[in-house]
UniProtKB/TrEMBL annotation:
Signal peptide extent: 1-22
UniProt lineage: Bacteria, Bacillati, Bacillota, Bacilli, Bacillales
Keyword entries, A-Z: Signal
Keyword Signal: yes
Pfam family, one: PCYCGC
Species name: Saccharococcus thermophilus
Protein name: Bacterioferritin-associated ferredoxin
PROSITE patterns in alphabetical order: PROKAR_LIPOPROTEIN
Keyword Signal part of the UniProt annotation: yes
Length: 163
């Protein structure tokens, strides 16, 4: 009995220590089978079961923001090649404009959304401009050049996007 109590105390202590060492705050809440947490940079991340299920943090925004979030998620192959110029590369460790909207797409199809873009006009503008140009037939290389030219002066250092 004493050994069981000691083991339980050790496991609890280990859990507390691991939580304190985590890169993100453990403030999880459940909404319709989703998980929400806040990162150290203050961004909210919410997991939904698929790309077709938008995060609840978008409920407080106009419909055009939700539409852009869904379009960004559907244009992963494009936006992973487009840098963001808002400073999120250093502040939030983003690697590209896609990261401002989606943190991760898991193997089971669930999506970990990031609310960073809801707080940043630069992120939203870059995604909207890139998607519009792509849908007009421009290549990823042309779009990348267009974004780099437009945002090279007066904005933060670009994310370390793959070329």
């Amino acid at each position: 009995m004493k050994r069981t109590a000691i083991m339980a105390a050790c496991l609890l202590s280990f859990g507390i220590i691991m939580g304190a060492c985590s890169d993100e705050k453990a403030s999880e809440t459940k909404h319709d089978h989703s998980m929400t947490y806040t990162t150290n940079s203050g961004d909210i991340r919410e997991t939904t079961k698929s790309i077709d299920h938008l995060p609840t943090f978008l409920n407080n925004f106009e419909e055009n923001v939700a539409v852009l979030y869904q379009q960004a998620a559907k244009h992963k192959d494009l936006l992973e090649h487009i840098p963001c110029y808002c400073g999120c590369g250093e502040a939030a460790r983003h690697k590209n404009n896609y990261d401002c909207f989606v943190h991760e797409t898991k193997k089971d199809g669930s999506v970990v959304w990031d609310d960073h873009a809801t707080k940043c006009g630069v992120c939203l503008d870059i995604a909207a401009e890139s998607i519009a140009a792509y849908e007009k037939g421009k290549s990823i290389k042309e779009i990348r050049q267009m974004i780099d030219d437009k945002y090279k002066e007066g904005y933060a250092k670009p994310t370390p996007t793959k070329s």
